[in-house]
Structure formats: C-alpha cells, structure tokens
Amino acid sequence: MFIFLDNEASSLNVDSYPIEIAWVWENGKSESFLIRPEPDWTDWSEEAEALHGVSRDALMREGSPAAMVAQRFLAATENCRIVTDAPAFDRGWLKRLCGVVGKSGPAVHPVLEAWVEALRSAHSGASAAEDATLLAQVRIREEKRTSRKHRALPDAMELWRIWRDLRDGLS
C-alpha cells in the first residue's frame, strides 16, 4: 500500500527539521500534525515561514510533541511504501523526527513510482509516450484545481489525487 507524504520544514538548511507532517492512505484517509520543535531544534528561516505561514510561536502553542508524532507516523505507515515529491528532503526530516524516539526514518520513494504503477495497471497496453501524456494531463488538471499551499495536508492530498485519477483511468 502506498502512503502519500508531505512535510513542511523550518528551512531547507542542513539543520532544518519538520514542523508539519501529513500522509494520505490509498483510500483517501489522512492524518496531519503540527510538530512542536524539540529544545535543540533551533534552525528557523523567515523565508520558509513566509511560504508555509506557520510561526515558531504557533508551533510551540499548537504543535504536538515530536515523540508522539513520530510514534504515530511509524505505527500508521508500517509495511507501507512511502512516496513523496521531495524524497531527499523528506528522508532527512523523517530521520530527524523518528530519531526523537530512537528510530531511523523509513525508506522514502519518489511519488513517480506510485504514479507509474497506477498508469501501468489502468492502461496496461499504453505506450510510454501515451503514459507520459496522460500523466502530464492529470498533473495539469490538478494544478489548475488547486494551487500549492505549502501546507502538508493539501500538498499530500494533491499527490494522492493524481495517483487516484491515474489509477482510475481519468484523463
């Protein structure tokens, strides 16, 4: 089973950490958490805050403890293939989050793997060019439908909706 994941972060720096995480299962159900920074998570970018709109103060007030979020994430995604549109960044942020509970982050794969698998199952006789055209059409339609919010749940839902439409043969 695929899990469609998105994180928002304190910055894109080497010392960055996840501030929000969301995931969507294949059935469209989802979970999302703001994450209260650990005491040693001090990196912060005003530019990142301007994109996602979440202040450090809001995280301290409204965020869930990182350990609780990590435990929930690990339990919810066990035996699933986690896919994202930014695997290199998400891998690092998951490693940081899961490290709070003494675990390494799980494997993270490019969302394109899920999309290609959905295409192949829905359009088994299609050529690679036809698959590429269909994927482009579905992505363009989704981009018109929603603008990227730079919030974890809307962004994870966008990845999932593209997969769902490809799986269901919608163009």
Automatic annotation (TrEMBL):
The lineage of its organism: Bacteria, Pseudomonadati, Pseudomonadota, Alphaproteobacteria, Acetobacterales. GO terms for biological process: DNA metabolic process. GO terms for molecular function: exonuclease activity; nucleic acid binding. SUPFAM superfamilies: Ribonuclease H-like (SSF53098). Residues 3-161 form the Exonuclease domain. Signal peptide: none annotated. This is Exonuclease domain-containing protein.
